[in-house]
Amino acid sequence: MVQKITCIGAGFVGGPLGTVLAFCCPEISVTVVDKNAARIESWNSDDLPMYEPGLSDIIAQVRQRKDACNLSFSCEIRKAIVESDIIMLCIDTPTKNHGAGSGMALDLAHIQEAVRTIGEVATADKIIVEKSTVPGGTTSIIQDLLEAVSTGTYNFEVLSNPEFLSEGSAVNDLLHPSRVIIGCQRTTSGQLAAEKLAAVYRRWTPHELIITMNQWSAELSKLASNALLAQRISSINSLSAICEAVGADINSVAEACGTDPRIGNKMLQSGLGWGGSCFPKDVAALIYLARSLGLNSVADYWAVVLEMNEDQQSRFAKRILSCMHGCINGKLITILGFAFKQNTSDTKNSPSKNLARELLREGATIHIYDPMVSEAQIYRDVNASDEQSRRLRIFSTAGEACAGADAVVVATEWDQFKTPDICQAPYETNVAVGTNGMHTKDIQNNGAHHEHETGGIDWASIVDNMYRPAFIFDGRNILNAQYLESLGCRYVGIGHLS
Ligand code: UGA
Questions:
Q1: pLDDT in tens, 336-352
Q2: Rounded distance from Cα 166 to ligand 1 centre (Å)
Q3: Cis bond upstream, residue 469 (ω within 30)
Q4: Taking every annotated instance into account, which residue ranges of this chain make up the domain UDP-glucose/GDP-mannose dehydrogenase C-terminal (predicted)?
Q5: Dihedral of CA 121/125/129/130: which sign?
Q6: What pTM does this model have?
């Protein structure tokens, strides 16, 4: 019976995962550890280090258990390792920026450091669960390292259990996973360890969604899933370029294709490209893996997915320039949205960054507003030269950011940017957990973390306060063209004639 679980790494995976584990398994004590003391302090406060809908609610619910609270955040990594039955590695694996595979391969330095610590301090058998995205074969490397550094004769069983949560819906994804993949060795002890982990997930996940396989398959499933999703978006974006050239409408094409149940309608939203910490690095890692296996045509195939994404971003910037009569020097362009997608403050590989840089290079003055990304983060990301910095300003409301603009560009699909008829109800989820007799809890989160998140922006007043001709560039195809044109502006979306 599992009594204690430690998640090493209190980031985008470890924090929400540890919280949901504690929430769904009241009898298991969960500790999330990290060597970053400031991050742990933040997890222990009311000001969490990240924004995820529903997260603060379930942390509050777990903390209300008072003496029975089974969730803690701590820097005492060694102590937590010693006390745990299962240790989950939720450690970042950034793309390498040096040496062999620079720009493509995943950097395993942080994982190796954590694994060494486990091997050195463990005083009993342990199950180590690899949650981070890793190149195939990493579980064997972890096994090898553990056995090499351990001072005792303990049994370390390493499982691959890739995490498929998306930022912005992490809590929902963890509570209702589409599948739980467990990769284990085909030995008795490997299968026993897999069963122990499966029993934890079965507390709230239907058993048919828990799939076991060998470790390589599990590791590759993670890269493959992200690569296939990224490829799908690159595919629809490549078609958007054709639509713009011939007068077809990408939304209609996506609808027509998506209604075929074999294709399905998810991840077919054309826009200015995918960002985030996962798609870019996982596609790059897959390309690197294929090249290192000598499978050059496989690597070339996936490389095009990456190129198409970059092409989509630069094509959009060029379109802004050409629509604005080939000159934006001295003009004011407002970018609405800086996060790489809605419901997150994460700006990693956000298309907005490249867009802002490109427009600054062309001589435009840039105003930026995002409901969740801090001013300091935006300045850091844009990394403007001294001269460009004088043309860059960050605002805390959309209305102020757009006042006097020649053009407004919607770069993130935040609900609040949507025109009234397209705007959906605020985030709300009724989460039913506990398939085995636990209480069913309702988590209500209407996304009211930020004052600007409630209510949509007032497009009529924004257009009213813009210079003429007033351009609205819809980089996420979330606006109603007719409505905006009726307000007197020129609407330019992605994947249809302007
Ligand atoms: C992605 C995967 O969706 C998760 O399943 C996976 O677990 C995660 O990576 C990970 O490896 O950790 P995430 O990066 O959080 O999740 O974001 P997505 O919602 O997949 O969006 C990625 C990018 O694609 C965003 O920039 C979004 O704006 C863009 N996108 C998404 C589109 O351009 N069109 C779409 O139809 C959907």
A1: 999 999 988 899 999 99
A2: 6
A3: yes
A4: 334-481
A5: positive
A6: 0.89
